[in-house]
Amino acid sequence: MSTFQAPKGTYDLIPPNSATYLAVREAISVPLRNSGYGYIETPGFENVELFARGVGESTDIVTKEMYAFETKGGDKLALRPEGTASVLRAALEANLHKGGNLPVKLWYSGSYYRYERPQKGRYRHFSQVGAEAIGAEDPALDAELIILAHQAYRSLGLRDFRILLNSLGDKECRPVYRAALQDFLRGLQLDEDTRRRIEINPLRVLDDKREAVQEQLIGAPMLRDYLCEACKTYHEQVRELLTAAGVAFEDDPKLVRGLDYYTRTTFEFVHDGLGSQSAVGGGGRYDGLSEMIGGPALPSVGWALGVDRTVLALEAEGITLDIPAATAVYAVPLGEEARRVLFGKVTELRRAGVATDFAYGGKGLKNAMKSANRSGARLALVAGERDLAEGVVQLKDLVSGEQTAIALDAVVDEVRRALG
Ligand code: AMP
């Protein structure tokens, strides 16, 4: 142990468990890469105003959870708390929306930062894989994204997740609903903070987890009763496309999510084995966001799936991913001359694409063989002075224990053959 520890609310990914994280990121991105989404990477920090405007001044993410700071040069920046605002900012900056080839479909993977109260499944540094489809209003696009997230989770073997679906309306019907909801909420017994929220973002009050609040919300006006014809038709089409694709979902009229920019389709993936931090991913349509950050009208839709919580979901379902051992061959030299010769063979094998490791540090045979077994390798290459004198090395199958001498100058071919 050193003097230092990982900061509160963070943890390190270390082998062998880190391999699961990589595999989860990979599994989530495969369906996206297979569906026309291109990879995008944006900086870990942005102008703080991008998030204030893009995510919303009234959200917890912006008011309480942002790592905001001023640089020595006087720039006001923030570590990114989420991906959508940055990706849209980058797409606009690069004029990706101007080629006439809409929607612009992008996927990303990275670290995000929120100053939250840490608990299992809720960290101050976490990892998301996300996707955004920018510049098209088409229910098939909303459905595509939900289907791809569903496919990703299924490919990992997850079963105990549910998809919650709602529509938040658009700039026609949402204001009418908002006013009706505000009228209703103003008549309730609520604390100062919540009363203030009624005026800034009343929909968020529906999301309040406290029982005393939820009890009073019975009978609150529901957005689905206020949706305009266009929003209703749009939502119905999304639902039909999901059903046709065999993707089950639950209508959740109270689903609002914690970010201000959502319009129409909103969804969340929840996992039933995770306790209070049950949302493994979520997203929705954000038709007004581009204009909110100074861009043209670009109706868009996207999601972000949490890698940390997806790994917890795998654990909750008892799923161990089938991750191939990193090392296929482990070389064990006995003596100085063998070290020199075998190290050369290791380099040759690696250049031929065979995952190979080497017993460093002059270990004795017993210790070296222990390391070989621990590495997960299928084969060991062992050589001592006498082997070298005969121009051979010993090829040992670490599963069967069988050992054969192979010619030194045929190591790559023989190893390949033994590995099948
Ligand atoms: P959000 O951007 O809040 O919609 O979050 C999308 C997903 O990111 C969530 O469903 C979680 O899986 C993950 N996530 C968000 N915040 C955290 C956090 N503090 N710790 C771990 N995962 C998180």
What do these coordinates show?
GO terms for molecular function: histidine-tRNA ligase activity. Residues 1-324 form the Aminoacyl-transfer RNA synthetases class-II family profile domain. It comes from Streptomyces yunnanensis. It is found in: Cytoplasm. The chain is α+β, with helices and mostly antiparallel strands. The protein has two domains: 17-173 and 227-316, Bira Bifunctional Protein, Domain 2 (BirA Bifunctional Protein, domain 2, 2-Layer Sandwich), CATH 3.30.930.10; 329-419, Rossmann fold (3-Layer(aba) Sandwich). The protein has 15 helices and 16 strands. Strand 9 and strand 10 (279-285) form a beta hairpin. Helix 1 packs antiparallel against helix 5 (139-155), helix 1 (18-33) packs across helix 11 (307-316) and helix 5 runs parallel beside helix 9 (229-244). Bound molecules: adenosine monophosphate. Adenosine monophosphate (AMP) binds at residues 82, 114, 116, 122-123, 126, 128, 258, 279-282, 304, 306, 308-309.
- Biggest sheet descriptor: 8 strands, mixed
Strand content: 15-25%
Number of helices: 15
Whole-number count of domains:
2
The number of distinct β-strands equals: 16
Major sheet strand order? 1-5-6-11-10-9-7-8
How far is it from the N-terminal to the C-terminal residue, by CA? 43 Å
Helix content: 25-40%
